[in-house]
Amino acid sequence: MTSSVFQSSIFPYIIITTFLLITTAIMVTMNFSLNWVFVVAIIGEIGLVLMVFKILKEKYTTDKTFKDFYEDHPIEP
């Protein structure tokens, strides 16, 4: 079963986790209360672990091998 990367169900996890971790960095820069920064950071870290788990468990297959190298920079024989 081959699925398109752009039709994957992992993108919401990537977007939400990225948003949470960027929000944490902005909150630290703006000197928010440590309690709020800590809560958002912990939620972001949990989201990161969940995102990695979902990416590794996704049913994505390909017929490419290491012999294919990179499609945009082929190896000349």
Layout of helices and strands:
Elements: H1 11-29, H2 34-57
Helix pairs in contact: 1-2
Keywords: Membrane, Transmembrane, Transmembrane helix
Transmembrane segments: 12-30, 36-56
Give a written overview of the molecule.
With about 80 residues, the protein is mostly helical. It has one domain (about 5-70). It has two helices and no strands. Helix 1 (about 10-30) runs antiparallel to helix 2 (about 35-55). The longest helix has 24 residues, at about 35-55. It is elongated. The mean pLDDT is about 80.
Q: Keywords for this structure?
A:
77 residues; mainly alpha; elongated
Q: List the domain count as a whole number.
A: 1
Terminal residue distance:
31 Å
Return Rg in Å.
18 Å
Strands, total number: 0
Helix content: 55-70%
- What number is the mean pLDDT? 82
Strand content: under 5%
The global form is: elongated
Give a summary of the structure in a few sentences.
This protein is mainly alpha-helical and 77 residues long. The chain has helices at 11-29, 34-57.
